[in-house]
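Cross-posted from the bioinformatics board.
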Amino acid sequence: MKFTEEHEWLRVEGDLVVVGITEHAAEQLGDVVFVELPEPDTTVSKDDEIVVIESVKAASDILAPVDGEIVEVNDALTDNPALVNEDPQGDAWFFKMKLEDMSALDDFMDEAEYKDFIA
Amino acid sequence: MAELKRTGLYDLHVELGAKMVPFAGYEMPVQYPMGVMKEHLHCRAAAGLFDVSHMGQVIVRPKSGDVTDVARALESLVPVSVLGLKEGRQRYGFFTSDAGGILDDLMIANRGDHLFLVVNAACKAGDIAHLRAGLPDSCEIEEITDRALLALQGPDAEAVLETLVPGTAAMRFMDVAVLSSEFGEVWISRSGYTGEDGFEISVANARAGDFARALLVHDAAEPIGLGARDSLRLEAGLCLYGNDIDTSTSPVEAALTWAIQKVRRAGGDREGGFPGAERILREMAEGTDRLRVGLRPDGRAPMRAGTELFAAADSERPIGAVTSGAYGPSIEGPMSMGYVATGQAAPGTVIYGEVRGKRLPATVTDLPFRPSNYKR
């Protein structure tokens, strides 16, 4: 699993990359009450604001970590936003992307580096 | 920035694992490890303990010894009937400005030989200056700084408090009493700001930590932070000074005329005689261009403070704005409060809030969002 400085995790699944937010991010956000996901089959560029996530405290955005195409979104989060707090690094994935170039993932942190980053 | 003040319960908050934030010049707990959502639901299901010591506690005492002297004098600053307030009773009110806006909202209690006021933290210095300037020399004004103020709210509050301060269970909503306890003299009102039955308790700073710990020994009682306090009061349809009401809003626009008793209204025995009376009484007769309303957004997206409101999905000019907005854990959906043009203020009216560039529908709704459980 790879991690971004925006507190997203990225997991390679076949030729797709699954994206979610880290436990640390979910804890900082507090109870999540609303999630708005992008439309599947949209092409996004790195740093596009593609997910809106609102907690009891505030609204925040999730940025596209890399260039690519959104191929699938996790509709379960729309109906049950609390899943983000319950299982942020498992069931509460946000979207799956197809990348033109998988080597874009090389620049991100591994788990040990991310732990240092948030320490 | 001025150094933040701490309440008498600061050490307890830290010990309980609270996340502390600056609020109205104080370091206050915004949440405990339980988290905002569970704290909110716990308060509605059992009992929640809040530290509200940052609020101002003020005694107004008559030099004559006759409380009606200060009651009459205070009526020159608030549009409520203070003279009509019986001994041992409390009521909600507000200081009005000469322009008819709201300087602060407060609780006024008649404690027999004096009045006891509880005012908002951010306004307390201004309120006390306003009292000193506005009340005659026959009134002594004393800010109480050596006492903490706690709120115990929720369906189990009565049972929990009765174990520590016998006699409180017999009180009714808005009763006040000065009682002795093993924590010294406690000043109690059966009130709060959550929509739940409950109490506010003033206790000496030196005993506040022990008192709070004794309350928290009960399984039913959990500490609740400012985060849940905000969603609780919003579900209860209660205004937050500085958000929903301020000097730019009149009590009539704010739909708070219920707090202006008949005797102070046009035709009453003590009609007017408070700052801004001309505007406020005129607005009560003629209406206002805008009104504070409740709003239920149709989807799940909260419409937060500042969200502009429109009559139609494609109309150009806003008809108002949201002043408080959050997710309501007990009503399981988003809720907002705000001001809209009077033509759009009737319950059931569908209007639109602009959230992240999109116009989303919301329905004007009666307040409170959730029925209150006061013990009348």
